[in-house]
Amino acid sequence: MDDGRAAALDAYRVDTEECTRCPLAGTRTHVVFGSGNPDADLMLVGEAPGFHEDQQGVPFVGQAGQLLDRLLADIGLARDDVYVANTLKCRPSGNRDPQPEEIAACEPHLFRQIELVQPRVVATLGNFATKLLSGRPLGITRVHGQAERVTLGTTPVVLYPLYHPAAALYTPSMLGVLEADFARIPSLLDRDRQPTDDDAGRGPVPAPARPAIELVAAGAQEQLGLF
C-alpha cells in the first residue's frame, strides 16, 4: 500500500467531515466520505448515502450494499479490494434525489478522491453518478455496460456505467443484467492497466447486444433515479 496516498486520503476525509458547502450539512448524522482500498484499481461511485449509511458513516451498508458485495465476490473481489464513494457525501432527507446545487457543491470532493486514489476503472452506479462523470445527459439504460476512456479532473480512467444495485432490489429481473455487466470488469482491469495515446478518441467499447424485452423493461423503469 502507498502510505502517502492513504495518509493524503485520510487527511482529506477529516477535512470533508467539516464540510458546509450545502444545506445537507445541517441534516446529516455523518459525512459518508468513502471506504476501501486507497490503492484500488477499481472505484465504484454511487448516488448518495441512505439512512443506514448516514447512521454509520460508511457507503453501501444496507441491502444494496449487501448485493454489491455479492456482485464483487462473483468476480473475485472483496470490498477491501476496491474503493467505494458516492456523488453526495451527505444524505438527502427522505432519500430524495440529489438536487443540482447539491451535486455541484459536492463534486469537488469526488474529483479529489479520484485524484488521490488514481483508479484505472471507475464504475458509476446509476443515473446521477453516470451523468456527472460522463458529462452527458444519457440515462443509465442507454449506456450501461459500455466502457470508454475519459479524463476525470487530471486522472485518465476507463469509465464503466452500471445499474445501481438497488435496481435489482426494485426489479429482480435486472439482476441478470447487473451480473453480466459486472462480469466484464476483470477484463477491463486487465486490458486497461495503462491507457496509451493510441487509445485516445476511440470512444465507447460496445456492450453485447441486449434483447428487446430487456430494453423495454429497463426503459419503463428509467424514471427512477437509480435507472
Summarize this entry quickly:
The chain is an alpha/beta fold and 227 residues long. It is built from 10 helices and 6 strands; from the N terminus they run αββααβαβααββαααα.
Structural overview:
The protein has helices at 3-16, 51-56, 63-74, 100-117, 127-134, 140-143, 166-170, 175-182, 185-191, 212-221; strands at residues 35-36, 42-46, 83-86, 121-125, 148-152, 155-162. Helix content is 41%, strand content 13%. Helix 1 runs antiparallel to helix 4 (100-117). Residues 195-224 have low confidence and may be disordered. The radius of gyration is 17 Å and the shape is globular. A six-stranded mixed β-sheet has the order 1-3-2-4-6-5. The longest helix has 18 residues, at 100-117. Strand 5 and strand 6 (155-162) form a beta hairpin. The protein has ten helices and six strands. The protein is of the alpha/beta class.
Observed structural traits:
single chain, 227 residues, alpha/beta, six-stranded mixed sheet, 13% strand
Secondary structure elements and pairings:
Layout: H1 3-16, E1 35-36, E2 42-46, H2 51-56, H3 63-74, E3 83-86, H4 100-117, E4 121-125, H5 127-134, H6 140-143, E5 148-152, E6 155-162, H7 166-170, H8 175-182, H9 185-191, H10 212-221
Parallel strand pairs: 2-3, 2-4, 4-6
Antiparallel strand pairs: 1-3, 5-6
